[in-house]
UniProtKB/TrEMBL annotation:
Gene Ontology MF term list: ATPase binding; proton-transporting ATPase activity, rotational mechanism
Lineage start: Eukaryota, Metazoa, Chordata, Craniata, Vertebrata
Main location: membrane
Keyword terms of this UniProt record: Coiled coil, Hydrogen ion transport, Ion transport, Membrane, Transmembrane, Transmembrane helix, Transport
Protein's UniProt keywords contain Coiled coil: yes
UniProt function note: Essential component of the vacuolar proton pump (V-ATPase), a multimeric enzyme that catalyzes the translocation of protons across the membranes. Required for assembly and activity of the V-ATPase.
Any one of the GO CC terms: plasma membrane
Coiled coil, from the record: 94-128
Protein name per its UniProtKB record: V-type proton ATPase subunit a
Compartment(s): Membrane
Organism of derivation: Cyprinus carpio carpio
InterPro entries: V-ATPase_116kDa_su, V-type_ATPase_116kDa_su_euka
Transmembrane segments: 409-433, 454-472, 542-560, 572-595, 638-661
Length: 764
């Protein structure tokens, strides 16, 4: 549980992995999730590392698996729902999996290709059939052709054309031609205009829309199509018409010369379509059987390939010794997990059958370890909220445990409603009770995943909303009279209610206020005309008090960091100035609010001074312009402002000057420190120092080298710039954050006003 309040104590360890058991060792460590590997080959590119070929093989298998998953999803075949976590396959089994996947891909590709060809042929035959049925009504032949006389097809509508009629075509002796096909409906108008402009009226276009949708062979989406028949005369016009059809991606089909030929073609098309339907149905059944068989193992293969790729990626981070028989790796590991790390290496070496076991050595390091905070399913949501603003440094105090209380509570201050809180809590409780249901965990709905991952946050927000709803005495914008009102408005009836029909609660009227309500706000305030005035004052002051307490608590948490890292000078140069600045200004505001609550009764409410005016006059040094809250207020406020102003230069200059003095004083204290190091070299003290350093993950040499490096790398300008940014951010943050906490009051007011408007719109 200690790692919840502070990140885990980490150490740097060196792993010596035998070549024959390195794969199994990394696989075992990956299953446990104990360590974080460091890259020992930073200067080597990714394409020049030892296990590049293995990673490429894994990527090829990932590509094949992606193809399989797409085909399975396309056929709506469900994947197995049971939870599986297979181990990474052994290197000798990788080729077997690779061959299975390649054979399966080849088979599926061939079947899919045949299916697409069959579907394309079926679509063409279907379009051809539609074309023949629709164009039959376009042209009517006047008579059968005679062998000794040239006759032409008659078009009843040709005589209406101004450019060319049938008799003029006969005089020209032109040869008529026909082009028929299908085009998308959205293109038909542009197609018609292009024909007219290019062919100058030497074509006749007839078209009609196909009933129903036809599948687009390029996109696979259903589209509306139009059957057209173009009659033209002249070979040159025919060439132009064909080029225009190609530009508009028309599907052209041969046009029959006679009715008998049309009937024969239609009959042949009907037979071929029936045969294609039969073959296509059998192909789809076979494809589905192959995919169903593949779906039983594809999920296991995906996990195995991912693990195998991760193992080879980790092995690429390791370096080889001079004999190329041992891999050397450096890992960050929690100190408490070192025994588990040793056992994992021993088990992996034994499973691989290696004669030489792999082992681990703890090594000192001056590098800053990574931050590791262990979470549970309850705390992970709150930890993610904190990490969204920034991950804390190594061994710093983790604010996530305190966020478990503060985040739902601040939400409940804005969302205080008993009924809404119960609904939210029940919804979250349902998700918590069924959290192991795979259908809830593995859904592809991103919004639902956000709700499900934050189910414990929503549960606490609902519970806290129930509590604040009781305090506000608010349930679906209605008050609950559980204990009986402490107000008796009968005495107020003659003081104004009878005359103006409005109820304004005034406790100064004798016999009206009998005592406080036992829990929360009295329900009679929901009927009073001065309800908003009372609730606004109450919630605004409560928001300020809660916000300043929250900010003060955050400043106090910094004390534990200063003490843990043994930087006691930060207590005097950072913590105390920050606390004085916050409390002397905004802590005093809380003091005035509480003082006014305690020492001014309802009888003095009309003459009570304004806290806001006093707070403004505090900065303007105008203490005599208004009625004081207490004796000696003016001088005390001047003192607080001076303390707050003086704390700013201490916060700004204190730490940089102290570190500069400490850096310059090292040279004069060098001889004394040398004597001190010699004195510490006695056997007893040296053993104690070694034991302490082993706990901290450092050594005596590392202490001395790190201190020397710090003395050499000290930069006053850098430290001063960093402290300046921190000072400006803190001082402005205190002001802006205090005003920002007023959003608790504003959103609470907006929430209640919106609910009151909705309830007023409901029919009585």
């Amino acid at each position: 549980m200690g790692s919840l309040f502070r990140s885990e104590d980490m150490c740097l360890a060196q792993l010596f992995l035998q070549s024959g058991s390195a794969y199994d060792c990394v696989s075992e460590l990956g299953e446990l999730g104990l360590v974080e590997f460091r890259d020992l080959n930073p200067s080597v590119s990714s394409f020049q590392r030892k296990f590049v070929s293995e990673i490429k093989r894994c990527e090829e298998m990932e590509r094949i698996l992606g193809f399989l998953l797409r085909e399975i999803k396309k056929e709506d075949i469900p994947l197995p729902e049971e939870e599986v976590n297979p181990a990474a396959p052994l290197p000798k089994h990788v080729m077997v999996i690779m061959e299975q996947l390649q054979r399966l891909e080849l088979e599926l590709s061939e079947v899919t290709r045949n299916k697409e060809k069959l579907q394309k042929n079926l679509l063409e035959l279907t379009e051809y059939t539609h074309m023949l049925h629709i164009t039959r009504n376009f042209v009517h032949r006047s008579a059968e052709r005679e062998p000794s006389q040239v006759q032409y097809e008659e078009f009843p509508f040709l005589e209406k054309e101004p450019m060319m009629d049938y008799t003029s075509m006969q005089r020209l002796g032109a040869k008529l031609g026909f082009i028929s096909g299908l085009i998308q409906r959205v293109k038909i108008e542009a197609f018609e205009r292009m024909l007219w402009r290019v062919c100058k009226g030497y074509t006749i276009l007839n078209y009609s829309e196909v009933d129903g949708f036809l599948e687009d062979p390029d996109t696979g989406e259903p589209t509306r199509s139009v059957v057209f028949l173009i009659s033209y005369w002249g070979d040159q016009i025919g060439q132009k018409v064909k080029k225009i059809c190609d530009c508009y991606h028309c599907h052209l089909y041969p046009y029959p010369n006679s009715n008998e030929e049309r009937k024969d073609v239609v009959e042949g098309l009907r037979t071929r379509i029936q045969d294609l339907h039969t073959v296509l149905h059998r192909t789809e059944d076979y494809l589905r059987q192959v995919l169903i068989k593949a779906s039983e193992s594809v999920y296991i293969w995906v996990i195995q390939v991912k693990k195998m790729k991760a193992i080879y990626h980790i092995l690429n981070l390791c370096s080889f010794d001079v004999t190329n028989k041992c891999l050397i790796a450096e890992v960050w590991c929690p100190v408490n997990d070192l025994p588990a790390l040793r056992r994992a290496l021993e088990d992996a070496s034994r499973k691989s059958g290696s004669t030489v076991p792999s082992f681990v050595n703890r090594i000192p390091s001056s590098d800053t370890p990574p931050t590791l905070i262990r979470t549970t399913k309850f705390t992970s949501g709150f930890q993610n909220i904190v990490d969204a603003y920034g991950v804390s440094s190594y061994r710093e105090v983790n604010p996530a445990p305190y966020t478990i209380i503060t985040f739902p509570f601040l939400f409940a201050v804005m969302f205080g409603d008993l009924g809404h809180g119960i609904i939210m809590a029940l919804f979250a409780l349902w998700m918590v009770l069924y959290e192991n249901d795979r259908k809830l965990k593995k859904t592809r709905n991103e919004i639902w995943n956000i709700f499900f991952e934050g189910r414990y946050i929503i549960l606490l927000m609902g519970i806290f909303s129930v509590y604040t709803g009781l305090i506000y005495n608010d349930c679906f914008s209605k008050s609950l009279n559980l204990f009986g009102s402490g107000w008796n408005v009968r005495a107020m009836y003659d003081h104004g209610v009878r005359s103006n029909s409005f109820l304004a609660l005034d406790p100064n009227v004798t016999g009206v206020f009998n005592g406080p309500y036992p829990l929360g706000i009295d329900p009679i305030w929901n009927l009073a005309s001065n309800r908003l005035t009372f609730l606004n004052s109450y919630k605004m002051k409560m928001s300020v008090i809660v916000g300043i307490i929250h900010m003060t608590f955050g400043v106090v948490l910094g004390v534990f960091n200063h003490l843990h890292f043994r930087r006691t000078f930060n207590l005097y140069l950072i913590f105390i100035p920050e606390l004085l600045f916050l409390l002397c200004l905004f802590g005093y505001l809380v003091f005035m609010i509480i003082y006014k609550w305690l020492f001014f009764t309802v009888r003095d409410s009309q003459t009570a001074p304004s806290i806001l005016i006093h707070f403004i006059n505090m900065f303007l040094m105008q203490g005599d312009s208004s009625q004081p809250l207490y004796p000696g207020q003016s001088g005390f406020q001047v003192f607080l402002v001076l303390v707050a102003v003086l704390s700013v230069p201490v916060l700004l200059l204190g730490k940089p000057l102290y570190l500069y003095w400490q850096h310059k004083g090292r040279d004069r204290l060098g001889m004394y420190r040398g004597y001190q190091r010699v004195r510490r070299s006695s056997e007893e003290e040296l053993s104690l120092m070694h034991a302490h350093d082993m706990e901290e993950g450092t050594s005596l040499d590392s202490h001395s080298s790190s201190s020397d490096s710090q003395s050499e790398e000290f930069d006053f300008a850098d430290v001063f710039l960093h402290q300046s940014i921190h000072t400006i951010e803190y001082c402005l943050g205190c002001i802006s954050n205090t005003a920002s906490y007023l959003r608790l009051w504003a959103l609470s007011l907006a929430h209640k006003t919106h609910r009151n408007q909705r309830s007023s719109l409901q029919p009585a």
